[in-house]
Amino acid sequence: MKIFTIILSIIAIILIGFNSTKIDLNNPFSGESALALITILASLCAIILLQILRISKRIEAQVKKKK
């Protein structure tokens, strides 16, 4: 599970990097720039969710260890 979350986080970071080059700073909310902003936001959400999953699995392992 740890490798899976790391791989998905790396893919999300690559998507953020790629889409940040697609943003037109003069008009960021039209056309391809808007799509790039939406994809960057979705990638950030995916990274946050993966970190929550990783932390919850770590807490679950510690709770099982105490029993």
TrEMBL record:
This is CcmD family protein. It comes from the Bacteria. The chain crosses the membrane at residues 35-56. It comes from Gaetbulibacter aquiaggeris. The lineage of its organism: Bacteria, Pseudomonadati, Bacteroidota, Flavobacteriia, Flavobacteriales. Keywords: Membrane, Transmembrane, Transmembrane helix.
